[in-house]
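Structure first, sequence second, as always.
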């Protein structure tokens, strides 16, 4: 730095002086450091050979320039200069800064390692969460409020609507509503939707939503058979099987989603809900619970059995309903046994003439769709 250049601002701590330091200006002149304390007229000239330079401060953002005080004194003069200002001095006398630069590089490396370690702690925590996500999801399901369950159900339904036409009127739609109404308990809110789809299927979504494919209704022989399927699906709703399954398949995302409070993305993850497989235990529980509901509604439980048997006998490759709700011989047998053990009160016919329903679904003009 030539004398003509603007002097560097610094803080000067004279040897043996107070601890506060004084504003000073620095310049470099031909191997000499010129120090001009602002509150004194005395200009100090220090040869480069007497200077010791160290990096200091948090993350070494400052430079300390020290030199011995008067002969015999144990104190040293000290200058503190911000790193942002030091460039001209460093350019003039690079050798002075070599040791400090090394210290600084080491410290910055330590700092970076520290940051990485700091970041690693929450990552390790998340990893541990991932490993225990299943039990966590189980517990979370119990804490999802009904309003949120409703939201997730609506999101699933939105995906179903986007995937193909829905039937919202006509004999099949009316029949579905009538069967659903017969099965619902007083005060229970259930929504039955009819999707125009060629696969024989039905599924339950969170929030009391049951979606039935038109092909299922068309392949059934009576309202009682459809009631059997609906009772089974309603049981999945009641037991929160779909919600549990969505939460599990969403994994860690459910936790993040829960934190953000926006459950809409879960609908996306649940888009493949029709293919969600419940455990064998869940299916058995839904059969038992569904059977109870049929008895309560005084609907002939043989309809449920008949439909499952028809499906199992006529479709060797297994329709969608069977692949997602495997109607194993064991399942049919235990259904039979349960019906035989407790036949319940005499059934009352649902009273829907099924031929017009089938005809409406199979007619060349097709059912009413929206
Ligand atoms: Zn099922």
């Amino acid at each position: 730095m030539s004398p003509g250049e603007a002097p560097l601002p610094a803080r000067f701590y004279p040897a043996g002086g107070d601890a506060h330091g004084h504003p000073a200006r620095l310049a470099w002149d031909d191997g000499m450091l010129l120090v001009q304390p602002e509150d004194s007229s005395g200009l100090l000239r220090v040869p480069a050979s007497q200077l010791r330079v160290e990096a200091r401060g948090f993350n070494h953002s400052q430079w300390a320039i020290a030199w011995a005080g008067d002969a015999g004194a144990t104190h040293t003069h000290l200058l503190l200069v911000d790193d942002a200002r030091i460039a001209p001095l460093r350019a003039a006398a690079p050798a002075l800064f070599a040791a400090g630069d090394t210290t600084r590089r080491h410290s910055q490396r330590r700092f970076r390692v520290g940051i990485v370690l700091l970041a690693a702690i929450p990552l390790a925590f998340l990893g541990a969460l991932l490993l225990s996500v299943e039990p966590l999801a189980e517990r979370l399901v119990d804490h999802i409020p009904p309003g949120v369950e409703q939201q997730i159900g609506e999101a699933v339904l939105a995906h179903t609507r986007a995937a193909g036409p829905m039937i919202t009127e006509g004999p099949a739609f009316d029949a579905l509503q009538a069967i659903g109404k017969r099965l619902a308990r007083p005060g229970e809110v259930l929504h039955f939707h009819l999707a125009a789809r060629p696969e024989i299927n039905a599924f339950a979504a969170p929030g009391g939503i049951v979606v039935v494919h038109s092909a299922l209704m068309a392949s059934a022989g009576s309202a009682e058979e459809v009631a059997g399927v609906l009772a089974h699906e309603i049981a999945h709703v009641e037991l929160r099987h779909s919600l549990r399954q969505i939460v599990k398949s969403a994994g860690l995302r459910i936790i993040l989603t829960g934190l953000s409070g926006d459950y809409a993305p879960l609908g996306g993850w649940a888009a493949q809900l029709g293919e969600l497989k419940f455990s064998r235990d869940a299916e058995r529980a839904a059969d038992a619970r569904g059977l109870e509901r049929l008895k309560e509604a005084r609907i002939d439980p043989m309809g449920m059995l008949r439909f499952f048997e028809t499906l199992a006998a006529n479709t060797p490759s297994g329709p969608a309903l069977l692949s997602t709700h495997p109607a194993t011989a064991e399942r049919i047998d235990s259904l039979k046994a349960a019906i035989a053990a407790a036949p319940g009160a005499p059934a009352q016919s649902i009273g829907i003439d099924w031929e017009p329903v089938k005809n409406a679904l199979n007619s060349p003009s097709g059912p009413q769709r929206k």
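Margin note: The first strand starts at residue 8 and ends at 13.
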